[in-house]
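[Structure tokenization] protein backbone as discrete codes
[Encoding] learned vocabulary of local backbone shapes
[Protein] chain in single-letter code, fold in tokens
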Amino acid sequence: MSQTLPKLSHHMVDEAQYNLLRSVGYLNAAERLDIIDACEFGDIAHIKDKRKSGEPYITHPIAVAEILAGFRLDRDTIIAAILHDTVEDTEVSDDQLAQRYGEVVARLVDGVTKLKSSSHNKQQNKAATFHKILTATLDDPRVLIIKLADRLHNMSTLDAVRPEKQRSTAQETLDFYVPFARLMGLNDIADYIEVLCYRNLDSDMYNKLSDKLLQHGLGRNFQREAIHRYLTIVLNNLGLGSGHVKVLDNRVVIYRQFFRNRGEVNALLRHYAFEIVLDNIEACDKLAYYLIKKYQIDDSHISDNIRRPLPGGNQSLTLIYERDNDFVKVTILTTQMQQAARLGVIGAEHASDVSQSVIQASLRNMKELIDEDSLDSNSPDFMGTISTINELMDYLHSSKILCYSPQGRAYELPQGATALDFAYAVGPMVGNVAVGANVDGKKAKLGTVVKNGELVEIEVGNNSEPKAEWLGFVVTNKAREEILRWFKDLSAPDKQRHGQQALDRALKTYQKSLEDLSTSDWDNLIEWRGLSEKNALFEQISSGTLLPQLVVSRLFSDEVTRLHAEEHSHEPTQPQQLVANAAGVELDFANCCHPIYGDPIVGHLSRHGLVVHRHKCFSLDDIRKDNPYQVIQLRWRDDKALRRTENGEYDEKIRFPAYLKLSIALSDEQISEVIYHLRQLNIGVETVDVRSSDTIVHIIVRSRIHLAQGIRELRSLLGYPNIMRLYQL
């Protein structure tokens, strides 16, 4: 083959071209000739360009194309990868690419081309680029896989750039590209990129774990082989001999758990992963049933994602069990599921109907984040794009669940979403007239929190209308915006009527009604809101600026003292004032879960006022079942609320208790070091309780971010033990 290829500008470019052509043997002769032409065209376009390492620049995009050839992608994708930087970095135009290689190649190259403007800052340019990649990916998913292969090659060759640049590139990749790839089902390539992110984020941590993996490599191989032999014997004994057992490289999971402080090094080294490919779903169930009985696997370690695929559409049946002190993860799937899992959205035609439905659920959610008119190639709205990308980042990093309609259509929701959120995910014509729900065949209220995999049927009433108190418990932006849109279109008298009715319903929580309110009660409320009369208060309720649940909490809590934020504006910020949508209401912070600034929070309407809990607090489970409307969504004010001085210093009065469990028993010397290093970060240490095999440290912090800084400092100081935050002592 080397004799038939044209000589290019440098022997390294010749080698890159040769390796690529060896990888695209699955394409026909005409397509391979087009790829040879693209290598030559790109070589000429980038002739003056060099990489930081000094190599000819064109070696990078040709290497990106070779990565994609490993996925057996089509001619257009391979050529677009070879030429993906030409429009951005050279004199080549979109029109030239379209004329020479076709409109599809030109469109793919445009999708991965950065947006830059000298009149905008780095953050705005980056947001605009993310926005463009997202929009282009939703139009053609091949844009994303080109960008991922580009990142994969860049991340593996970052040694030539500054350490700060290595870290920032790794963080950006981990924040945006990796979760985006997983949501699109591109887990194979995401795994490789994620490991490289950790290597470039913190080389000391990475090297510590890598050295451990090398030290224990022989022992791990021995164990893997033993488990592999055993699983093969099980298949034969069950009459499933046509199945195939494959050892999985689970390093990405080990690195992820280690970097995210989810386990000790020595325990993580005893985790093994296997994939078993069988002929059909019945065979998958048969093997799973045997292993569940054999190892008494409890429900928390069984994930049936065959019937209920994961976000990204991946289908499998996953079991985790303990065997001789080893933790074994077995992923059971069919050949069709394995093929679909490799390329996610790009190989969606290989996926089952339910898997495709799940991928479409993610695509719908992301499309709703994009304002189609907010950005075009001629006049990008750089400022508007930043807020869109911030919403996208929140979405990518939120815990997601999938619920299903009776027709089997999947809807992706954030964890903590309610049946009403599901109704609005189906559409506003359903949400606006919802009156109740059936969840897995059982009657449920609209405020009921739905769980992953549940089948949800919404009951509707022809004459039903949205209610203002719904704004207190819906979680999704879509539901909130649809409810607000409905109220916005009402006349002023109708808004007042709806606000009045909502307040009356909220009062029933305390066995009260509007007739029970005295003149002084009304005066108190009107003064609190800075209004002139009742109707204005009702309009605030129906406009979403005031929750009726908070009005009731202010009126009927047992506390005598109430906070008036306006009266305390000259005083240092109090923790209660950090909750954005509960100003003027008596707040308490729950001792059952110890929420701190930055935790996702909800409020429980109790006789003692509004009690702030972490949104996952176990003590709310029963309340949510019986009285879901008593739990309302809360949000913190932004970080500026913590800063009181012009030079950005933090208010010393904003202090939250937190409890850490260290997986080692500290010595006296280590205790002194811990206290010293935490105080350097302005973290207070209340008590240190050393026990036989661990240590409990009670600290005082400003926020969740402040706490994370302290945990990182302690892990580095103490040799990377596992450190857990305890929510209840």
